[in-house]
Amino acid sequence: MSVLLINGPNLNLLGHREPAVYGTTTLAEIEEQVAAAGAAVGVDVACFQSNYEGAIIERLHAARTDGTQFVIINPGAFTHTSIAIRDAFQAAEVPFVEVHISNVHAREAFRHHSYLSDLAVGVIVGLGTRGYTLAMSFVLERLAKG
Prior knowledge:
Layout: E1 2-7, H1 19-22, H2 27-39, E2 44-49, H3 53-63, E3 70-74, H4 83-92, E4 96-100, E5 122-125, H5 130-145
Parallel strand pairs: 1-2, 1-3, 3-4, 4-5
Helix pairs in contact: 2-5, 3-4
């Protein structure tokens, strides 16, 4: 079984960028936690981060045929702007969970709309970096059920 963890723009700066909003946990630490949760039950986790929309789209296209069974994504600012990533999810036909570290609904108005949420199996918002491990727990339960 295989899960793909995707992080979008600026998330490579986690742990350093706006710690009051995003905390001090680094992306490497998040990836390690998610991968460890998968490894504990025999699920492979591939991690991918890009600041480029096209790279994320290409990775989603690859997920369609590379055995990825579930995606966990924090699309960052692309949440609110990328119809192209939405279209890539529709084309890939791989279920996904959308994760946001901050409560986007308590922030600027432009952050309140997601182009992805209505396609997602679930959305986790505002629970800090713990949202990633909660998403992984959910995904592992879904994969175990088949």
